[in-house]
Amino acid sequence: MSVLFTAALFSMSVQTKPVTVEQQYQYSNQEYCTLVRQDASKQLLSAYADKLGFVPAKAECKALLSASKSPVTETSAEQQIREFSRGSIRKLTPSVIQQLKAMSEEERLAELQRIFG
Q1: 41: helix, coil or strand?
Q2: Cα separation of 11 and 4, whole Å?
Q3: Number of C-alpha atoms within 13 angstroms, CB side, residue 17?
Q4: Separation between Cα atoms, residue 55 and residue 33, nearest integer Å
Q5: Distant-in-sequence, close-in-space partners of 72: CB < 8 Å, separation ≥ 6
Q6: pTM here?
Q7: Within its chain, how far is the Cα of 105 from the centroid?
Q8: If exposure means fewest CB atoms within 10 Å of the residue's CB, which of 18, 26, 28, 84 is most exposed?
Q9: 40-79 per-position pLDDT tens digit
Q10: CA dihedral 22, 23, 24, 27 (to 10 degrees)
Q11: CA torsion angle for 12, 15, 18, 22 (degrees, to 10)?
């Protein structure tokens, strides 16, 4: 898997146009509500709301979180990648994300642990 990490670092250093975090990361009101439920710090919530552009109402959060509850315990590759990359300055390129999605769940979790620590 070291080839994957090396390829990620190389592709990040070769980019001709700098890509900002806002262009790579999609902020959502559902994630904001999840952060509220997890008792995130006020500073984190404030910064997230600034990036999101608004503060979701409590009723909206309640509706979003009750709709998102499901009996499925297995997390998707996108959710795992998003959880590991949340708050990190390391951003993965689309090609690395595709490679991670192609891995088995155990391999993907091990690689995400190695990349993000």
Answers
A1: coil
A2: 10
A3: 5
A4: 9
A5: none
A6: 0.43
A7: 16
A8: 18
A9: 888 988 988 898 888 988 888 888 878 655 444 446 888 8
A10: 50
A11: -50
